[in-house]
Structure formats: structure tokens, C-alpha cells
Amino acid sequence: MNTRNRTPSRYVYYGLHLYFSGLSLRKTSERLSYCIKRNHVTIWNWIQKYQPKIIKTKQRRICEFIVDETLLKVGSEYTWLWVAIDAKSKEILSLSISKERNMFVAERFLSNIVRDYGKHPVSTDGGTWYPMACQFLKLEHHLHSSYEKNLIERTMQYIKDRTESFDDYFPCRLKNCKLKHVKNWLNLFVDYHNNEIKHIK
């Protein structure tokens, strides 16, 4: 009787990481072979099963959104990364990237979070684009407490440390890139990050 040899999840994550970083299926298979041998068809099947756009679980109870943004370098360009985390669980609730930073982008980011998790108070660092966006969406807004500031800054630095190495090893060389590979990689990162938090708990 044949028994299927299941691939450990850490290797699946690593294979997805390599693929979403911009490598082809065959190149991903070659890089992964240093750890475990899997052909490009197997990796293609992992990609089909993984849904990088889904990073939320609506069953989660949210007390408030802690929101911030930071500047990232992607290839030769800079882009804004928007992050929302839950104050209680410390999980990343949402990520978004944009070429601009203004009230309209902030409003769109917050409206997507409200759509997924409902209305909750919003804590920010005092950026002028947040109060008007919250007022438009009828969300309670306040500035970060020292605890919230520390929490979001550590999360942002954690993300930046990993995106910097991502850009070092997999720089974007496409002109007018739509950043789809970056979004996929970030969603994979969030999925892995949140699962690690749940595992620790």
C-alpha cells in the first residue's frame, strides 16, 4: 500500500515565499531542493490551494484597530505600507500598499477594515489624514497610548526588517510594476505571522 509523504508546512511556506518573491515554478523547485525535493507541479498545486487575498477570520473579537503607515522601498521606487493590528491579540488584521499617503487612501484602507471586522475605535499616531477619514466613516478616533505606540512600532519594525531583506534578494526590476508580487508576499507573511502568534498562545 502506498502512503503519501506529506510535505511539512514549513517547507510549503518556504516554497510559497520563494514563488511570491518572483521566482518561476522551476526556479522555486530548484531552490527548495536544498531542503526537500519537490517538483514544480507540486509547488503549482500548493499555490492553487493557498489564497493570499484571504488574511482575515471574522470570528475574531476586536477591541480596537491600531493603525499606522510606513515607507518601504520596492525596487527603485518607494511605496506606503498601511498596517492595522488588533490591540488585544496583536495579530495583523490588514495590510495595504499605495503610491500616495493622504486622507482618501486612509479612508479606503479603514473602510476595508470596517467591511471585514465591523466598526471599532481607531488608534493612530496623529497623522492629519486619519481624523477626517474616521469622521467620514463615523469611527471613534484617538491617539496612540504609550502601550499602543510601542505595540505598533514593534510590529512595523518587524515587517520592515523582513521586507528589506525581501528587496535585497528579490528586487523588483519591472517598469510600472503593479506590485502584485509584493502584495502576495505580504499576505503570505501576515498569514505566517498570525499563525505563529496563535501557536505561541
TrEMBL record:
Residues 48-201 form the Integrase catalytic domain. It comes from the Archaea. SUPFAM superfamilies: Ribonuclease H-like. GO terms for biological process: DNA integration. GO terms for molecular function: nucleic acid binding. This is Integrase catalytic domain-containing protein.
